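Course exercise 7: structure representation. Students receive a sequence record and must write out the corresponding structure in token form. The form below is the worked example handed out in class, using DUF6998 domain-containing protein (150 residues). Read each field label carefully; the graders check that inputs and outputs are placed in the correct fields and that the protein name is recorded exactly as given.

STUDENT ID: A-19
EXERCISE PROTEIN: DUF6998 domain-containing protein
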Amino acid sequence: MPDVILRLVEAHQAVVKHYESSRRTFTLDGKLIGDIGEAVACELFDIELSTSNDHGIDAYAKDGRSVQIKATATSGNPMFRPVEKRADHLIFLGLDLKCGIGRVLYNGPEHLVLRDMPSEWSDQRPVSKRALRKAIEDQPPRSELPRRKV
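STUDENT ANSWER:
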């Protein structure tokens, strides 16, 4: 394999080892952005990644709220799939991998983002930019998860 690929594999293994207690695998075949988003969210907010396989719940805040974490490395919208249990809170991150920066695009109650979704659907569905903007506008004061003190 080319040296640059071997360095990527080495870096991947280092990231997996660093976050091994969270049981995230940072799979290079499609889940990588989501796992990176979860790791970044834990650095930004005082949340702990769930070690169980609760679909729809990635972490828990210190106040007990369940948290779903979504991330995009494009200008895409958050994608959701049908799950049995929804999180109390949603963190949606936009990651610019070339520049090594990210932005919190949403930090609030998950139900506000999902309120226009059909009651039942299959596969994955994106939330529209309009629905995301409306959720931000309608978000109750002080409903955001606080950022970690640095």
